[in-house]
Amino acid sequence: MKAIIVRDGAGKPELVEQPKPEPDAGEALVRTLRVGVDGTDHEVIAGSHGGSPADDDSLVLGHEAVGVVEEANGTDLNEGDVVVPTVRRPPNGSNPYFERDEPDMAPDGQYHERGIVGAHGFMAEYFTSPASALVRLSPELAEYGFLVEPISITEKAVEHADASRSAFEWNPESALVLGNGSLGLLTLAMFEQRFERTYCLGRRDRPDPTIDIIESLGSTYINSTDTPVPDIPDTYEAPDFIYEATGYAKHPFEAVEALAPNGVVAALGVPSDWTFELDGGRFHRELVLHNKAIVGSVNSNVRQFEAAVETLGSLSEPFLESLVTGVYDLDEFEAAFENDDRTIKNAIQFSRHEERR
Ligand code: NAP
Ligand code: BGC
Ligand code: ZN
């Protein structure tokens, strides 16, 4: 079968031939339909995040997959089920985080992430997975099923941010998403259903397709070149909820100051090291005197994948069509990794849903 890998240090993906995997007990064999590409894949390819399995010098890419069960192999799945795999797997057998279905809370060393760190991913014509790490979705959602994983990231972050505000009556009305990449735009679409007013920050001038999407969602675009985060309260309003999806390391700190009293920042970006000056006293005081919270969040669990399946079903077709800027067949896989201003969300198509092999 064909697979897309990155060799250590190569800095670019490669299409290779590999043996088709065989499922172990408790695992199903899945025929891959589509696999999405996100900012993390670019970081993995560049070598700034993640890494190959310990006994290998290359990594099969891909962590945002949707596929069809080809061999249920005695699990409670059925052949033909459309499924999405979760990302984390235990490195040696199991550990308490996986046993209590909270692999997303496991610290370094207690997880591998398929397609990111320590375990091969899903960019192959077939993959195997424990049935317990496969979440079913209705066949009508198969086309956009590769968006379940990134949506689940926001399901988790919002759950944790809300939990931090659950000890008092919190009635948020406005939300600001920092970042107009695929994660930021998906989150903005989710927020449209919850908040009365939403804003999304980018750094691009018009015309730009992401600004069109932001405005078609009824949201306000903020260009950080004209209005940096600290100026947002005076120019627009102080938001109750700020979701950081830029990976720009100053943003979480600036966001805490820009928040309305009693608000919360969810930080999602995974930046490289960067030392900069910060008024720590002001930051500390702002958190304390205005009851603010900042919550970091990574990965997601089966329950959040299930919530993401529901959410995917609620997103409008025009929004999904404008978000997904390219779905490429294997013979043009390189195009899926291009990252120009017209690219929002790309995916690679390994097979078609209707196909039977
Ligand atoms: P992405 O496509 O690279 O999106 C980041 C966006 O932020 C880009 O559109 C970029 O604008 C914009 N941006 C960066 N710096 C900015 C600034 N100073 N002002 C305004 N806009 C700025 O990445 P993504 O896939 O959406 O993911 C977003 C971040 O979340 C990444 O850091 C990724 O690693 C992280 N992530 C974390 C998790 C998790 O579990 N915590 C899951 C998925 C992703 P331009 O395009 O114009 O450069
Ligand atoms: C993935 C998460 C993963 C995170 C950190 C994200 O792009 O969607 O599943 O935990 O990167 O590696
Ligand atoms: Zn991701």
Question: Summary?
Answer:
Helices cover 25% and strands 25% of the residues.
What does this protein look like?
The protein has 357 residues and is α/β, with parallel strands linked by helices. It folds into 2 domains: 2-137 and 316-349, Quinone Oxidoreductase, Chain A, domain 1; 152-296, Rossmann fold (3-Layer(aba) Sandwich), CATH 3.40.50.720. 25% of the residues lie in helices and 25% in strands. The protein contains 10 helices and 19 strands. The protein has helices spanning 39-46, 96-99, 148-164, 182-192, 209-216, 232-235, 251-258, 280-289, 302-314, 317-323, and strands at residues 2-7, 14-17, 27-37, 58-60, 64-71, 82-85, 88-89, 112-114, 118-119, 126-130, 134-137, 174-178, 197-202, 220-223, 241-244, 264-267, 293-296, 324-329, 345-349. The strands form 4 sheets. Strands 3, 5, 6, 10, 11, 18 and 19 form a 7-stranded mixed β-sheet that branches. A 6-stranded parallel β-sheet has the order 14-13-12-15-16-17, sandwiched between helices. A 3-stranded antiparallel β-sheet has the order 2-1-4, with no helix packed on it. Helix 4 links the parallel strand 12 (174-178) and strand 13. Helix 3 packs across helix 9 (302-314). The longest helix is centred in the middle third of the chain and has 17 residues, at 148-164. The radius of gyration is 20 Å and the shape is globular. The two termini are 13 Å apart. The mean pLDDT is 97. The structure holds NADP nicotinamide-adenine-dinucleotide phosphate (NAP), beta-D-glucopyranose (BGC) and zinc ion (ZN). Zinc ion binds at residues 38, 40, 63-64, 150. The site of zinc ion has 5 residues, from loops.
